[in-house]
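Progress against Task 2.4 (sequence-to-structure conversion) is shown through the following example record, which the project officer requested during the mid-term review.
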Amino acid sequence: MYRVVVFAYDFPHQKSEDFILASGLSGIDLVGVIAAPKRALPSYAHFRGYQPLSEPPPHDTARLCSRLGIDYVVLDHDDPSSVSRYVTSRNANLAIVAGARILSAAVIDQFRHGIINFHPGKIPETSGLDAFYWMLEKSSPAGVTVHLIDRKVDAGQFIAFESVTVEREDTLATVSRKIYVSQLVALRTVLDTIGKGVAFSTSAIDRPSKNPPMSNEQRAAAVAKFDEWKKRYSKSALLHAGDSRAM
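Structure tokens generated for the chain above:
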């Protein structure tokens, strides 16, 4: 029997909101949300290369959990002692990442069934912070890697890859949005498995090294490769090549 905790952020955050909503309404045994307080993070690069699609602002995470009747606690995700006390108090044995700082081995080890992450890209090709840009740079397919994390960032045990269908008319913004939506689709599958109480089928991820953060110049160079990337991965191109990902 899975007893699930969600790692999220203690401020309005779209993925935190969507994952908490989906998990809270799924019928699984969601025993709590561990929310990390907001803090200033290093700025590696500000170049985006496109304007994201507009969407309504997310709700306050604490208020959302209160409305859903979900236990909520604000803790630093890198505080093993506090996380351990909370996990023990809730008898939790599995976690889902909806928004988290880097989790230490001491935190990961608190969950008997592990911690599930949804990385926006194929691992190991798009490991690291700039997954979207590494996808273009390395001509990697669009999608989301579902995996159980370990002490190596963007590694661990592979569960599934949820692919994205790319159309000829797609832009950088629409591909980015589709990758986000594919995280929600992948989450639905994970929640179904949790609800059935069955074990996840996994395989080890071979990730010798993690991609470093990109500079503005590197991001711009990756964005310049979008048209060629789209020619390779658009639905029409895959159909022509007989690739099952286009089906």
